[in-house]
Amino acid sequence: MELNGTVEVFVNESIARIEFFHPQSNSLPGELLRKLASTITEVSNRDDVKVVILQSKGEKAFCAGASFDELLSIENMEMGTRFFNGFALVINAMRKSNKLIIGRVHQKAVGGGVGLAASVDYCMATTKASVKLSELAVGIGPFVVGPAVERKMGMSAMSQLAINASEWQSAQWAREKGLYSEVFETEVELDNAINDLANKLATSNPEAMMELKRIFWQGTDHWEELLPQRAGISGKLVLSDFTRAAIQKFKKA
């Protein structure tokens, strides 16, 4: 399958920027997810990189989550599980990275996009970066990204997002719940703050940062098995007539 979308890497003075893009509001087809996961791993293993910034391109959503077109093309549970396992691969790649990862969320984050924001180590956003876990509204559920969101925001906030699946929560709400570390009015302010932090981290002790990251992610080793298992739940549900009808309705809205 041709990669519809891009994943690019820019390295400058020990700071790596990983930037993903898809023309449909930065939604994430399976191949793009796998490319993003492998890129995070490759960049994390580079000796010339001290800190990583994860961001998306364009003026629309930071990430619209799963690709509806690909969801509708799934024909069996194996295909479904493979698709949703793409999110598991990305989350686990960030979890296992020995580099601290800063997230840049400039616009709205939906579904898997919230999972990405929850899986970086320090996430900054603008006031336009509202969040929504829309999976239940289309007949699935945030099964794969749920552990990452729960780890960052707590079960109460995660369940609020998961249950009230059609409603947006503000960037300020997301900051109060711990998803975002800082929120800014403009992208200029956002980028200035990200650059300041990245430059500070680039001169910090790499071994100390690596040990800190291990502490931050303590107790998540079982995600290597858990997240693919969760992908199987979504892979089964996406085949139901209910879910297919809900996705079609969602696409037309």
Descriptive tags:
253 residues, 2-enoyl-CoA Hydratase, Chain A, domain 1, two-stranded parallel ribbon, alpha/beta, six-stranded mixed sheet
Structure characterization notes:
Helix 5 (146-153) packs across helix 6. It is globular and about 55 Å long. The chain has helices spanning 30-44, 68-73, 77-96, 112-119, 146-153, 155-163, 171-176, 187-202, 206-216, 223-237, 241-252, and strands at residues 6-12, 15-21, 27-28, 51-56, 65-66, 100-105, 109-110, 122-126, 131-132, 182-184. A 6-stranded mixed β-sheet has the order 1-2-4-6-8-10, with helices on both faces. A two-stranded parallel ribbon has the order 3-5. It contains 11 helices and 10 strands. The protein has one domain (6-185): Alpha-Beta Complex (2-enoyl-CoA Hydratase, Chain A, domain 1). With 253 residues, it is of the alpha/beta class. A hairpin with a 2-residue loop joins strand 1 (6-12) and strand 2 (15-21).
Blueprint of the fold:
Layout: E1 6-12, E2 15-21, E3 27-28, H1 30-44, E4 51-56, E5 65-66, H2 68-73, H3 77-96, E6 100-105, E7 109-110, H4 112-119, E8 122-126, E9 131-132, H5 146-153, H6 155-163, H7 171-176, E10 182-184, H8 187-202, H9 206-216, H10 223-237, H11 241-252
Helix pairs in contact: 1-3, 3-4, 3-10, 4-5, 5-6
